[in-house]
């Protein structure tokens, strides 16, 4: 984790110590709580606010990929806010993983799940059981008709679709989302609002 220190969207590792039965990690304090709790409290985010948060999330994926690290557990509960303000910095907790067990495209899928939830307040795939959720994912239908999604911009919906493409070979990459080679959906989304 130390090789990722200094990244603005990653909770900083300060120190570690251990006793007979436990290892203790000392991390940067993020007093704003979990991003999931903020979504639950506030409902959904505007396109602009969701785009800003998505940029931070995908930036984490991009930095990790450049360092040869996969997070493998990207979810709203692992993103913390630096403080309680509306403009608090978004930071990811618990970086882990290796490229030997998962493909990097899984982190973009997870970021797409989070973007949908930021825009709608609910998960894109839902059912009463785990099997039902898996079946919904396999069907691949993403609901853009339920409120508040009809008012979400077409560029935001397009980005969600590209991030949640089932075939990892056809899924948009972190570099494409961030616009390293072309003006991308995320930049267009930020500019369109």
UniProtKB/TrEMBL annotation:
The keyword Aminoacyl-tRNA synthetase does not apply. InterPro entries: CDPK_Ser/Thr_kinases, Kinase-like_dom_sf, Prot_kinase_dom. Signal peptide: none annotated. Residues 1-186 form the Protein kinase domain. This is Protein kinase domain-containing protein. It comes from Anisodus acutangulus. The lineage of its organism: Eukaryota, Viridiplantae, Streptophyta, Embryophyta, Tracheophyta. One of its GO terms (molecular function) is ATP binding. Belongs to the protein kinase superfamily. CAMK Ser/Thr protein kinase family. CaMK subfamily.
């Amino acid at each position: 984790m130390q090789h990722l220190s200094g990244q603005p969207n990653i909770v900083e590792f300060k120190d570690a110590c251990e006793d007979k039965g436990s290892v203790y990690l000392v991390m940067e304090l993020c007093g704003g709580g979990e991003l999931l709790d903020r979504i639950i409290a506030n409902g959904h985010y505007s396109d602009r606010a969701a785009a800003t948060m998505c940029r931070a999330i995908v930036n984490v994926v991009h930095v990790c990929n450049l360092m040869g690290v996969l997070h493998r557990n990207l979810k709203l509960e692992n993103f913390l806010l630096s403080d309680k303000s509306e403009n608090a910095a978004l930071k990811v907790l618990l970086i882990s993983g290796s490229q030997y067990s998962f493909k990097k495209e899984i982190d973009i899928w997870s970021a797409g799940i989070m973007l949908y939830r930021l825009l709608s307040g609910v998960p894109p795939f839902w059912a009463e059981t785990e099997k039902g959720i898996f079946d919904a994912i396999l069907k691949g239908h993403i609901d853009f008709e339920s409120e508040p999604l009809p008012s979400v911009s077409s560029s935001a919906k397009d980005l969600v679709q590209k991030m949640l493409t089932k075939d990892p070979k056809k899924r948009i990459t972190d570099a494409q989302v961030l616009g390293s080679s072309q003006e991308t959906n995320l930049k267009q989304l930020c500019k369109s609002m």
